[in-house]
């Protein structure tokens, strides 16, 4: 009984810290929280998490262990929204870990007070942030591969339109417009944003450079550099440069497609093993019963 009260006391202390910290931080991080997903149920509790992570934010911004995560968020949201999104993600992970730890303390308090229950729940708490980080990195890789897969096709259309007499900017605008309502591909989302930047007063070169930074993919940087270097020349030299880049991008697309195929075949191994066990049970079960 005493053990249960100790667990409950630890839970109560963490709850008091959470409430006091939330009240203290309320209203201090509105600029960051305004960019969070309003449908997320954890958004209302983010002030406490942002206040908590703010105490060691410099370490989170520079520690090598978070490099992959920072790169993934930069890849997904671009340089302008990167830092805010990074702080929101770290705050959400911290909030999940804090609430999970409180739950882990409450579990032995309402059961038999066994440390085993706390240890089991705490293991799950440690796994959840890793799962969310891995999910973010996977989204980044998915976006990168989508851009690598689509760029060769865009380049082919662009070359044909330029040969037909269109300017590079007009050709890019036509490629985006033809997507119509299906403008959900990350490459065309960034291209559409680039064209809006041009309409808002940016030069075409500045908008292209911003497009390259938002994509954060080597192939997009090559695409931007080739256009900027050859658009003023025009004519056959521009088309030849596009064709040469196109061959490189098509080779990259083949390697990405091959990699995706290997990943798909790897994911099928576990379901195939389950199917094998089911078939083995269906076929071998009656035989074992007859032998018995």
TrEMBL record:
State which residue ranges cross the membrane.
Answer: 6-25, 88-110, 116-133, 268-289
Q: Which GO terms describe its cellular component?
A: plasma membrane
Q: Which Pfam families match?
A: T2SSF
Predominant cellular place of this UniProt entry's protein: membrane
**So which domain of life are we looking at?**
Bacteria
What's its membrane topology?
Multi-pass membrane protein
- Signal sequence segment: none
Nucleus in keyword set:
no
- Where's it found, cell-wise? Cell membrane
**Which InterPro entries does the entry mention?**
T2SS_GspF_dom (IPR018076), T2SS_GspF_sf (IPR042094)
Query: Where in the numbering of this chain does the Type II secretion system protein GspF domain appear?
Result: 155-284
What are the alphabetically sorted keywords of the record? Cell membrane, Membrane, Transmembrane, Transmembrane helix
The record's PANTHER family line, in alphabetical order, gives: INTEGRAL MEMBRANE PROTEIN-RELATED, PILUS ASSEMBLE PROTEIN
Per its record, how is this protein called by name? Type II secretion system F family protein
